[in-house]
Structure prediction request, 88 residues.
Amino acid sequence: MSLPTENLDEATPAEHADHHFALHTLANDVVNVRSPEYGAKGDNVTNDTDAVLAAQAVAYAGRKPLWFPAGTYILDHSTFVLQGEEVW
Prediction:
């Protein structure tokens, strides 16, 4: 993962959030739904249900926050946040 090198003073809130969580991801302390092993796209076209559910199961089992980078995720049914689970 590469971090942005441009001036963050002009970044959008979503870019700030992505930058912030990129720093955390480097330490491997979150489960990113867009990681290749899960494959969510967040492109408002792809059905991301299976990818999100797989990432959620790993996050819950590992007691790690589930991270959704900026995007629009299509889910074909409701998902639930389990007690003690963090979603970022």
In short: The two ends are 18 Å apart (CA to CA). The CA atoms of residues 18 and 69 lie 6 Å apart. DSSP finds two helices and four strands in the chain. The first helix runs from residue 13 to 26.
